[in-house]
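Lab notebook page, bench 4
Experiment: in silico fold of construct C2
Operator: M.H.
Input chain length: 85 residues
Purpose: comparison with the prior construct
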Amino acid sequence: MMPGRDDLTILQQLRSQDKTKQVPVVLLTAKGRSVETTQLAQVNVLEIIKKPFNPTKLANQIEALLDNSCQAKNTLNQTLLPSDS
């Protein structure tokens, strides 16, 4: 928790700026209400990991999420962007 700010507000600010709108975000939260989860999904959160989580598996879990996100973006770019040939 950040005093005076909530996850959704901070993410909306990130997504509104060109420099930070593509930054992958994984949230660790004690909350996780369904309304909040739906709202966070609308601002492109890769994953919401609810507490308690396994700290020994956390790094691997985040690495896998980021790898999957990069692979998906590469596939999408190859599909949507015209080739040089």
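Observations: Residues 13 and 34 are 22 Å apart (CA to CA). The helical segments are 7-15, 34-41, 55-80.
Next step: discuss at group meeting.
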